[in-house]
Amino acid sequence: MRLSVPIVDKPGMLHHLTGLIKEEGANVLEVHHDRGLSEFGLAATVVSFVLETRGHQHAQTVLKKIKSFYPLTKVSLS
Description:
Blueprint: E1 2-8, H1 13-23, E2 27-34, E3 44-52, H2 56-69, E4 74-76
Antiparallel strand pairs: 1-3, 1-4, 2-3
């Protein structure tokens, strides 16, 4: 599963986000954190992930958990 997650750019936010992924038992295969490409200005950034899940249902569970804290999360099918 590929996700793009906008987060506030302050200490601890990336740690919180990866903690949610860990809690749901997904595996991070790739992560990209580029502060310069954010469409949300200087106060935010977008973190992109490639996650390994145990299937469609597990992916939906992981997504629901992340969206409960980061509602602007987007899933990429490519």
